[in-house]
């Protein structure tokens, strides 16, 4: 485990993994010392634990301003103003690395002197792990300045669902003033109450060979690009890990245009492929290159990705998306965004381009679509300012993840991982009807479902005149284009005319 303490823009040396030694004062008078939990990000624990800490007294003239944990978004555990935080804005996730920040609140009578920050981690079984570093705080800690707080890396292996902690400020040198607020909790330990995701996030990526122009272009899905995809999800998604599978190559000979033409047919291909998948908690994503470069495809704006979106559905076949597969940051952001739609997330309210009014999340808590709370990149070790960063489910940059989306995604991940263990009923068969606002109706495949159909329920009229019949259908719109997928009973046949109620009247191609 690596531990670091930053004061007044002075970086203190981090403790190396498995280190449990006292630090020496550096040339600027600061030291990183004390003891560290055994292990690092790939290993935690070990026999014997750390040596017993020195018997220091509570710190004088300074208090804990805040204790917060970061696994992507800031989660306050304790504040000087309100004490222990009982209603958290996001979960603490088992098996996911975390940054623990200890904020300082010097009192009016504070006289700068060296103190120790001691964090004691108590697992449900085994000996306590004691982390301690020393230095002289330079003033009040602030959110935007990592150098102003004491920072501890907590490896995923310690966050096993049983971890409790205690945070103390202790005098290393003599000071003056009272000692109130120098420990949390005042006595004993506070349980972190980590939540289990019930498994890793599972993503199956398909390379689509684009041959509409005879090029046979394929996206780069080599080791480096797969690593970039994994890291993108690990940074922003509330998951302990990601299992990335590489699917077989899919040939495609129809044109896909920047204005949205052709996208629905390609999405239909992925949806039908996903419908054959037996695991309910696996997401499919198809990547393709309609031109040689993003600049040439998106010269006047473009659709970059597409997903069937229906917040009320548990239809596993809808866990499929497609997107541009250029080797750039935008394509990575598109994967996160579209898979977010497949997790039943609609749009954050930022950026008018491509947003249909009924696909903007009315419950999103931040009016401008920003992230709302401080974020933290566990891999790049950088903070994300809520005044500057937008939620990745919107259309604005730079983007990160809000606590609202982080929490909602976690609930969905848990639900699907639990669903994988359920025994479902006998499958029922449904006819797909794909349609758009150009007046085209395209009958799709017969698909099987083991869960009752959900989605927007519509009364659908099939055929014309006295022979017309009415049935119930279940509609799923698309993330960035009009139209969508309608599921109908298997026995509807393939009539030439379909009236989908509020969605309007549609005809097979070639009808007036």
Description of the molecule:
The chain is mainly β. The protein folds into three domains: 3-191, Coagulation Factor XIII, Chain A, domain 1; 201-419, Collagenase (Catalytic Domain), CATH 3.40.390; 428-508, no CATH class. The chain contains five helices and 32 strands. The protein has a seven-stranded antiparallel sheet with strand order 2-1-12-9-6-7-8, with no helix packed on it. Strands 26-27-32-31-28-29-30 form a seven-stranded mixed beta barrel. Strands 5, 10, 11, 13, 14 and 15 form a six-stranded antiparallel sheet that branches. Strand 29 (469-478) and strand 30 form a beta hairpin. The termini are far apart.
Structural class, by secondary structure, is mainly beta
CATH architecture assignment of the largest domain: 3-Layer(aba) Sandwich
Mean pLDDT score, rounded? 84
CATH topology description of the largest domain: Collagenase (Catalytic Domain)
**Helical amount among residues, as a percent range?**
10-25%
